[in-house]
Amino acid sequence: MMGFPIWNATNAARERVYTDMEMWTEVRRRVLNKELSKRAACREYSIHWDTLTRILEHVEPPGYQQAQPRPKDLLRNNFGIYDSTGAV
Asked: DSSP alpha helices (H): ranges in the chain?
């Protein structure tokens, strides 16, 4: 185990699993090769069961995804407020 967070890890270390590609692949490899059970992986890496499920479903950490598009700028569109270029 190459210095990855263990059960008594700090919150900062626990959050690394979501974006650290090395940890993501390490967890996947160990669980998929049956080197480590799912339950033991959750305990050893201090991750939630749903997080482990996500790790096993995706080869790499999924990026940020919005649930729905951001609303349009109502002031600019409806009231003719100008942007920095002078366009409406």
From this structure: 11-15, 21-32, 38-45, 49-57, 74-79
